[in-house]
Design a protein that fits this description.
This protein is mostly beta strands. The chain has helices at about 1-20, 125-130, 170-175; strands at about 40-45, 50-55, 60-70, 75, 80-85, 90-100, 105-115, 140-145, 150-155, 160-165, 175-180, 185-190, 195, 205, 210-215, 215, 225-230, 245-250, 255-260, 270-280. Helix content is about 10%, strand content about 40%.
């Protein structure tokens, strides 16, 4: 009988413990605070060039931001102040996303900008150098054989990650041609065989890209540099470079540009810049 009483008491204890352990755990509510207010920003069409829009963050108290700029060049930006080129007439939506210092989440705001006309490009001395005097035959550029034809670094103008030696590129890179035509502002890529793919072990592969439109934007790059903007699906020099290129040097015999490292999806990386050197195709 004593054993029965002890056994019953033990089972009652286990049953009570199991019942207690199955009760849901209740935690006190944590006050995360209010969500951040929608950010304030301005998007102003420049009076001297109605295809350029200056975007400026007017809010403070944030630690991260992202502009979403469909239809513009660049398509995204993380700068507090930036200049965006819209080459075609139309109405475009500018969206700013911010993350607040308080850690209570992110918020966004939108504005529309209206571009009244397509961008035009006069045949000035700079465009003449790029396109071969604006002639119908255009002008094609190929990689230079000099040291530093391809340089890479973490910041604008830096080269500490990589600098190519003299004749240090692959054979399939030296016969690639990047052609600018003034007539209809056509940009055409001719690989004369194969194209180096940086996302597949730098192997040489077939690649056929249809011609597209290019633009030249004066003073919109870093430190007031001019910019060459080629189609989103194209590249100049290396495929993992952004399609928006700052012009460093442009003469009759030399073209040097800088562009951000970009992923296979075309989105520029948080850090990393190419400097690429070209000469006229023979």
């Amino acid at each position: 009988m004593n054993r029965f009483i002890l056994y019953s008491a033990f089972m009652l204890f286990l049953g009570g413990t199991a019942f207690v352990s199955c009760l849901p755990l209740e935690e006190e509510d944590i006050d995360l605070g209010p969500l951040p207010a929608a950010p304030e920003f301005s998007a102003v069409v420049m009076p001297e060039d109605s295809n350029l829009v200056v975007i400026t963050v007017l809010s403070d108290g944030y630690f991260d931001l992202l502009w979403d700029l469909p239809g513009g060049n660049p398509k995204t930006s993380k700068e507090a102040v930036d200049t965006i080129l819209y080459s075609k007439a139309g109405t475009y939506t500018v969206t700013l996303h911010i993350s607040s210092d308080g850690g209570n989440g992110s918020s966004s705001a939108k504005q529309e900008v209206v571009i009244l006309k397509d961008a035009t490009l006069p045949c000035d001395p700079t465009i003449s150098l790029l396109t071969g005097e604006c002639g119908l035959e255009g002008k094609c550029w190929t990689f230079s054989h000099v040291a530093g034809a391809v340089s890479v670094g973490p910041t604008y103008g830096s080269t500490e990650w990589y600098t190519s030696p003299v004749d240090g590129l692959q054979v399939d890179q030296y016969d690639d041609q990047y052609c600018f035509y003034f007539e209809d502002l056509v940009f055409a890529y001719n690989n004369n065989g194969l194209t180096v793919n940086p996302w597949n072990g730098y192997s040489a592969e077939p690649l056929d890209l249809p011609p597209g439109e290019w633009l030249y934007s004066k003073g919109t790059g870093a430190n007031g540099a001019d910019q060459i903007i080629i189609p989103d699906t194209h590249f100049m020099g290396v495929r993992d470079c952004d399609n928006v290129l700052d012009v460093v040097i442009l003469t009759e015999d030399q073209l040097v540009v800088r562009g951000r490292i970009a992923g296979q999806d075309g989105v520029p990386a948080a850090e990393g810049w190419f400097e690429l050197s070209f000469e006229p195709a023979q």
